[in-house]
# Entry
Amino acid sequence: MKEKYINLFTDFGFKKAFGEEASKEHLISFLNTLLPEHHQIHELQFCNNEYQGATALDRKAIFDLNCVSATGEYFIVELQKAKQNFFKDRSVFYATFPIQQQAQRGDWDFRLSAVYTIGILDFVFDDEDNAQRDEVIHRVQLKNQHHQVFYDKLTFIYLTLPNFRKTEDQLDTLQDKWFFLFRHLHELDEIPPRLREKVFLSLFEKASIARFQPEERQAYESSLKYYRDLKNVIDTAREEGREEGREEGEHIGYQRARAETILKMLNHGMPEAEVAKLMDLTLQDVQTIKKSAVLPDCTGNDADRR
# Structure
């Protein structure tokens, strides 16, 4: 493995850098660069990252990180490696779980603590206008027809990190430095002078692959392979979709490319449930696509996996 430090867009790397008790200070520092002064975090508690919903009929939600501050604010932090259908719908749906969690039995005045959903994206939105397309931070709140904030306790913050293009010499703020690390940590061979602050020195120590135990190294390599395969599959499918769209119409090309993406993910050993989550489909949809096609075997021989 050539890299000296982990890729923060891998599941293992993200959890290692931000999701362990020993790395909690990294998460606090990063989140505070995005939060208003009155919601700055001094202490965090990790919560169960899985919600089953109020009844057995409710869909299950699984977050990358789920935590609550010492003053009661809730934070859902999600890493998104690829575009999904209905991604914004999914974000809103996930935000309802910490809201419902605050319900109290008996007499209750319905007062709620603030909920933040932070999406760290390895892609950009296609539906933004030209003025917003190059922005890194997209902050969303419920507003009225006069563009005034109607409810300030539910906030969505999306970071389209491919839009962050500052070089090491241009890193002026703490936020700049965190964004830079998300994009370039795995490309660094040494700690840059501008990142020799206590919190970053701690991060570099946690992110050093040479310090991993053998089982950690194996887990990271598997996570890195998954990330690279996913990026390659989606990039290829998107290009194929554009080509087919020109010949057959955008809708047909898109549907075929999406089906091929799903089949390639399954062929790479990704669980059906994970594929369904990434593509924003039901498990039944994925299984239907799987049954309707012949999956290519990794050895080069076609195998019908129906």
